[in-house]
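Fold this sequence, please.
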Amino acid sequence: MSNPNIEPLAQDHVIVAQTPHPETGFFHDPGITRLDDGTLIVAAPQWHFQRFGGDQTVRILRSVDGGQTWDERESVPGSDATPFVVDGQLLMFFQKKGHQDFMIMASDNNGLTWTSPKTVMEGPVWNISTPMVTRHGTLYWAMDYDVGNGHCHSKVMVRLNRQKSALDPDAWSISNIVSPPELPAEIVRGLYPQPVTEGRRSPFWLEPNTVEVAGKIRVFTRCNIDRYATANIAAVLDYDEDTNHLSFTQLTAWPGGQCKFFIIHDTENRMYWMLGNLVTNSQDLLEWGDRWRKSQHGPSGNERRWLFLHYSIDCLTWFPAGCVARWPDSVHKSFMYPSAVVDENDLVILSRTSRDSGDQHNADLCTLHRVRNFRDLAMDLHAGSPSE
């Protein structure tokens, strides 16, 4: 019997999109959604390096055969985009310029064509492909909110009133702003420069996941601490629907919490599944060399070559299900920035992938991975509980 922690679950993959050349540009945070008829929609922001003009465009692709083949639709000039479905309607969060204004596009023909982007909320908000929660007539999505001297220093909850059109600015509202906590000195070694906000040493936290847990809305967000040197930590925030109030709750151990992770709430078996990158040598105790330590996208804690799947019943403590895909031959390759959809019994995963760029951050591919019968990978963690 193969070991899923050694033999990857979905190493074989389909290339959804590829940059014209790995030295001219890269993909920035692609996202995926699934329609009721099984159609898959991918938005893949492609950024050109500044020395080539800095152009940014969102490439839109769709598949009607489970991701085996892809049809590329007309691209839209823009920085970031996330497709999602609300009440059967295909929508896309869109930004012409990152961290600036919340825009929406819509499609009424399964992603063949789209409306022009419309601003529904002004402000320095930003997020990428992370989970949302729909309940009680409202969609909830936590986002980064820029405050002070840099990106990703605060969080807000954005709400959509589902009784109104998603293209109506009056349908959207926003919560209070939550700033990151001051970090305990005991978890920061000070190996690398650390952001300081309002005189406090705080994590660079970003890409919040919005999840319903035990009837309440929680937010789990990535924490980049000491430039990845303190790995495997995430932040937990709680949201009160009645008061529209978001608050920081705690820092928590989290496998792969130093990089972008993605949570899937699988209500069928009362499980949560989480994709993220495990790291080999977070504080460079193995001295991997100057190229790695001095890299723009280093140091060694920013390794992204091991994409793993975990599962949980409380969305806080995680069990390993196995390695999804890996690059055992180079720390400068990656399967990263995952997003995923459930497709009947399978988990379909979209990865921002670096194969030929020579840099684990600058992805030259978007790849699709299918973990078949993914629920079979989990033990029954509910069994034996006092409530059973």
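The helical segments are 290-293. The chain is about 0% helix and 45% strand.
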